Amino acid sequence: MAQRETTSTKPRVHYDCTQCPAFCCSIYERVTVTPADIKRLAKHFGVPVEEAREKYTKQWEDERILRRVKDTIFEETCMFLDQKTRGCTIYHGRPGVCRTYPARSRCAYFDVLRFEQKQQGDKSVMPVVKIIFREDVG
Ligand code: SF4
Ligand code: SF4
After folding, report:
1. Which of 38, 52, 92, 134 is the most buried (most CB within 10 A)?
2. Is 133 within a domain?
3. Domain assignment of residue 115, yes or no
């Protein structure tokens, strides 16, 4: 998620996180963290694990998730997103799920962004996506 670094050893991908408003850091209400992720966060900030757990994560049902804040583009986003650059401020300390997302060569949200910009011939266009769960679909 919101990657800002690339290396030539990585498989070819068809999205560019540096050109994206960080949909993935913003539209998912829950970014799950494991005990290992919390340990990494603690190390990244040089604080005790318990402090990192309280300060940067919260409980959601039976999951521990990253805390969120109000966003300038979406309703909310991850507390670690730089809202100006739209990049991750804890890149080397980010949780495992952020490291693997989107786990395929294309990112659907980036495709939608590029599609709409091309469609309207305007690079400033940004579709604001929201995930909802419909009750009438079983
Ligand atoms: S939504 Fe896709 S392109 Fe945008 S930051 Fe996340 S992984 Fe990168
Ligand atoms: S930790 Fe970084 S990559 Fe993960 S959701 Fe937050 S801002 Fe995005």
Report:
1. 52
2. no
3. no
